[in-house]
Amino acid sequence: MATYHCCVLIWLVYLLAPDTARRAVKHVPDNNLEQWNTEMQRLLLR
Fold first, then answer.
1. Residue 24: which residues within 8 A CB-CB, separation 6 or more?
2. Which of 7, 14, 40, 46 has the fewest C-beta atoms under 10 angstroms from its C-beta?
3. SS3 labels along the chain
4. pLDDT tens digits for range 1-46
5. The pTM is what?
6. What is the spatial distance between Cα 10 and Cα 16, in angstroms, rounded to a whole number?
């Protein structure tokens, strides 16, 4: 019974907590997808 009440309390805290502010992304980092694919294939084919 105590576990249930703790879970309900946690749910209420999350329900009543204010939303975090969203920020716009100003700069998207460059990604080298070809390099990522190559490394993933290397790791999978070990």
1. none
2. 46
3. CHHHHHHHHHHHHHHHCCCCCCCCCCCCCCCCHHHHHHHHHHHHCC
4. 999 999 999 999 999 998 888 888 888 778 888 899 999 999 998 7
5. 0.42
6. 10
